[in-house]
Amino acid sequence: xxxxxxxxxxxxxxxxxxxxxxxxxxxxxxxxxxxxxxxxxxxxxxxxxxxxxxxxxxxxxxxxxxxxxxxxxxxxxxxxxxxxxxxxxxxxxxxxxxxxxxxxxxxxxxxxxxxxxxxxxxxxxxxxxxxxxxxxxxxxxxxxxxxxxxxxxxxxxxxxxxxxxxxxxxxxxxxxxx
Length: 178
What we know:
By secondary structure, this protein is mainly beta. It has one helix at 80-85, and strands at residues 23-24, 32-33, 44-48, 57-67, 70-77, 98-111, 120-125, 131-137, 148-161, 174-177. Strands 3, 4, 5, 6, 7, 8, 9 and 10 form an 8-stranded mixed beta sheet that branches. A two-stranded antiparallel ribbon has the order 1-2. The radius of gyration is 16 Å and the shape is globular.
């Protein structure tokens, strides 16, 4: 799987969530504003597994996220089966920007690239949606596969094509919409 977390708990993803703190306006007035909520679609993507895994496909729900002010459209892996599948066997993301992995609570997360065919950047975010760490992951060509850890407790991970997070600011925040 493109992302194999150390824990596979379930998550209820039926409501809209904005994962960002209130912020003070730039004019210094002290007034607070809420970051915008993002709505999701009911569309899904289908990923084809490698031929040696058989003729099986998995559908992922689609959602929108914003990281450091940049919008992304991503597949959502919020249950154990979808997290286990991740981006394994995917050769192209098509119109998607990546995949969001969501866990019900923070823990140190570890991901690997077994059977993942494209290089990916991964950004880990904590409970408050603050950036924890960013790494570039390369496809695994032999066992054992390298583990890419969050380094600190994280609740969310976002995978995108390698290079997309090269200039991600260290104070980046994640907003998730459904």
